[in-house]
Amino acid sequence: MDHSGSENGISDNGASNDNHRSRGHWEKWVALNVGGTTFRTTRQTLGRDPCSFLFRLCQGDPDLDSDKDEKGAYLIDRDATYFGPVLNFLRHGKLVMEKNLAEEGLLEEAEFYNIKELIHLVKERIAERDRKHDKSLMKRVYRVLQCHEDELTQMISTLSDGWKFEQLINVGSSYTYGSDDHAEFLCVVSRSTPVRVDGRDGQTEPTDRGKVLQQRGSRM
Fold first, then answer.
1. Helix (H, G, I), strand (E, B) or coil at 159
2. Coil, strand, or helix at residue 15?
3. Alpha-carbon torsion 121, 122, 125, 126, what sign?
4. Would you say 65 and 56 are in contact if contact means Cβ atoms under 8 Å apart?
């Protein structure tokens, strides 16, 4: 009895299964030609944001005009330098970028690809960077105010325009009212002031009387 037919049938089925597995494995991967640089990733990675341009692209959205290069990679006319951080975010959900890249440039790409979560993270980083920058342009200005004991509470309670109480210095008794001695104080206050281009910070110098009292207080 000739078994060649059944053997060939088994062999053909095996080859067919192998080809099916290979084709299925290959279909999970997607090639993207971004500005002349080829990136390879999975459809699962690109599907992190179902509303994104990249998800629609790999799903073959008919509304997208998606050309391919000679190797079958989708052609995307964008900056490859900024696509790396975009793709890595889709892979692990973290915003990681080289120091030489600008957040605004990455924001442009995130908005182009319509990746909502990445847009939010980049905007947060820009806001944090700007806050640090603004803080570095601020200088703490101190001012010494002279007051008597009975004026102290009112003066501190009426501080305004960003002034903050820092320190109280007792410089001793300055006058007698009735039978009671009334102490004299130096009240140190401060506020943040923008540093001007000429380097001046607008600090108000204490009066000569205040300077004398400040010196007396520092020796006590």
1. coil
2. helix
3. negative
4. no
Whole-number Å distance between alpha carbons of 148 and 184: 5
Compute mean pLDDT per 10 residues along the chain, 220 residues long, and list them.
Answer: 45 49 61 96 93 90 84 94 96 93 95 96 92 72 80 75 81 58 80 63 47 46
Alpha-helical regions (H) of the chain: 4-27, 43-46, 53-58, 80-92, 103-113, 116-136, 152-157, 208-218
**Per DSSP, what are the bridge partners of residue 191?**
141
32 in Cβ contact with 109 (< 8 Å) = no
3-state helix, strand, coil split of the chain in percent (to 5) is 45, 25, 30
- C-alpha torsion 43→46→51→53, nearest 10: -100
Tell me which residue of 63, 101, 65, 70 sits closest to 83, measured CA to CA: 101
- Please give the structure tokens belonging to residue 181: 């001695």
β-pairing, 164-177 vs 180-194, is antiparallel
- Looking at residue 219, its pLDDT comes to 44
Tokens found for residue 19: 């080809």
User: What DSSP line would sit under 104-115, residue for residue?
Assistant: HHHHHHHHHHT-
